[in-house]
Amino acid sequence: xxxxxxxxxxxxxxxxxxxxxxxxxxxxxxxxxxxxxxxxxxxxxxxxxxxxxxxxxxxxxxxxxxxxxxxxxxxxxxxxxxxxxxxxxxxxxxxxxxxxxxxxxxxxxxxxxxxxxxxxxxxxxxxxxxxxxxxxxxxxxxxxxxxxxxxxxxxxxxxxxxxxxxxxxxxxxxxxxxxxxxxxxxxxxxxxxxxxxxxxxxxxxxxxxxxxxxxxxxxx
Length: 220
What we know:
Elements: H1 2-29, H2 34-47, E1 65-75, E2 84-85, H3 88-94, H4 102-105, H5 108-116, H6 121-131, H7 137-169, E3 175-186, E4 202-211
C-alpha cells in the first residue's frame, strides 16, 4: 500500500514543482504589472541568474556580440595566475550535446553581464521620457540609484560565479583574491559567415580585486 502511494505521489509532486517553476519564470518576463511589482523580490531571487530569460535574441534589438568572463587569481602562497577564460570552455563543452547542463551553465555569465550593463525596458523608456522634460533631476537620480543597485547585485552574482569556477579549477589550492574582467567580441553577420576574419576580444569592464567568498562551492 505504501509503495502504491509513493508511485502516485511522485508524478503529482513533479507536476506541482514544474507548475510553480514555470509560473515564476512567466511572471519574470511579463510586462510590468501589479503582480510583477508585488512578487519581484521573490521572483528575482529565484530566477537570477540561472533561469534568467534574455530576449535580445529577437528583433528589434537582437544580440550582436559574444560576452566572456576572465578571472585572475591570487593564491595564499603569493603566486598569481594569468587571465583565465571562465566562459568559453563551458560553451565548447555544450556543443557535443545541447541537452547537457553545459547548455545552461555556458550562458550564465552572458546572462549576468547583459543585466549588469543594461537598464530594464521600463526604466529605459522612463529615462528617455524624463530627459526630454524640465525639472526631472530628482527622478533621474532615483533611476541612476536604482540602476547602480542593479549593477551591484549582478556584480555579486558574477563574483560568486567566478569564485565557483576558480574553486573548480583549483580544488586543492587556497585562493585569496579574484580579479575579473568582461570581454566582448562582435558576432559574425549571417551574410559573412564564410569569411575567414579574426574577431578580436575587447575588454569592456574591469572589476577590482575581491576576496573569494568562503560559502561558494566549486562549479562542478
